[in-house]
Amino acid sequence: MTTAKQIQELRKELNAFRDDIEDLRGDPETNIRLAELGANLKPESLAGMKTRRILQGHFGKVYQMHWSEDSTHLVSASQDGRLIVWNGFTTNKVHAIPLRSSWVMTCAYSPKGTLVACGGLDNICSIYKLSLRTPGATMSSADQAQVELHKHEGYLSCCRFISEREIITSSGDSTCILWDVEKRVPKSEFRDHTGDVMSVSIADHGNVFVSGSCDSRAMLWDIRAGTEAQKTFTGHESDINSVQFFPGDNLFGSGSDDSSCRLFDIRAYKQINKYREDKIILGITSVAFSHTGRFLYAGYDDMNCYAWDTISGKKITTLSGHEGRVSTLGVSKDGRALCTGGWDNYLRIWA
Asked: 74 near 66, Cβ under 8 Å?
């Protein structure tokens, strides 16, 4: 039978283990060795990267874009109250979907390309089925959403499909929700954040996602393990506006209003690099990794997109061209193109 003395000894041992873990984890600001390890690596170059296509058709600020898995099509959401599905190579508009509310903040393409979703200040995630195009037709519209998901008590900040049957949404009500699209009901609700949840990113296998919030924290969730956060990552000093998994899903990047991007290692449970220059003082709206993970692209309020070397932490190049805030960006699945969208109403495709 366990005695009080044994319990006391076990508690001491447990506290000692916790102290050892904290010592190994180190200070997130001072115990960063990745940049030192990469200091002698030959720097990569993006000198040849330039705007190859400009997608014109929105008449309001572009708030978000998302690539299809086919690396050819993408969907964009704008304050003009429309979703537009584009062919990124030809610049043709394949679908134009009028929305019930023009205050849209997010959009997403489903993995098989049959659905697009959006949401915003209406607190609703609206899902549209892309109609089959007749030969020769380049544009069609949907009269109403096929599915509307009601539960959030605040604006919809981000949505991402796991499959054609499941989608995760984040909201200004500080929660994330996993939905059953066919049944139109929540499957799980994730409530550990204490501020508006601004962004989610889903791992390739679909069981794990990471969220970034205005509480300055990023959280890792496993939908198979209940509704409590598996890990909480700190370090940012202001709102986290964007999170994105690194290729391989063992790390993720984040962008914040504190003018920094950070790279977190999930297995080591710590920050391993930081991307910031003192002369860049404005916030970051969106982040995405190159196909290899060597570069981190970040969109800023100063109308530029900066590319950072993920190993050395150095800024590689500046992608200029937008005449308003770069509000969204994404790298195609095959890694061949980067798309940026801005408050100048345009999307640009870089390669």
From this structure: yes
Residues 6 or more apart whose CB falls under 8 angstroms from that of 48 comprise none
Q: 216-253: per-residue pLDDT in tens?
A: 999 999 999 999 999 999 999 999 999 999 999 999 99
Residue 10: burial class (beta carbons within 10 Å; 0-12, 13-18, 19+)? exposed
Joined together, the tokens standing for residue 157 give: 């900040």
Domain count, the chain: 1
Q: Using alpha carbons, select from 286, 276, 284, 258 the residue that is nearest to residue 313.
A: 276
d(CA 281, CA 79): 26
User: Can you give the CATH number for the domain in which 157 is found?
Assistant: 2.130.10.10
Residue 9 maps to a domain: no
Whether residue 246 is contained in a domain is answered as yes
Whole-angstrom distance, CA of residue 130 vs CA of residue 18? 52
User: CB–CB of 280/306 below 8 Å?
Assistant: yes
pLDDT tens by residue, 123-154:
999 999 997 554 444 555 444 678 999 999 99
Q: How far apart are CA 91 and CA 55, in angstroms?
A: 6
- What tokens does 122 get? 């209406």
Looking up tokens 């283990």, which residue turns up? 17
What strand order describes the sheet that includes 326-331? 51-55, 347-350, 338-342, 326-331
Residue 78 lies in a domain: yes
Closest CA to 297 of 244, 218, 220, 238: 244
> Are 224 and 234 in contact, with CB atoms under 8 Å apart?
no
Which 3 state secondary structure label does DSSP give 14? helix
Let me know if residue 261 belongs to a domain.
yes
Residue 32's DSSP bridge partners are none
Structure tokens at 112: 């098989």
Domain that holds residue 223: 48-350
Report CA-CA distances (Å) from 215 to 40, 212, 254, 346.
Answer: 36, 8, 13, 31
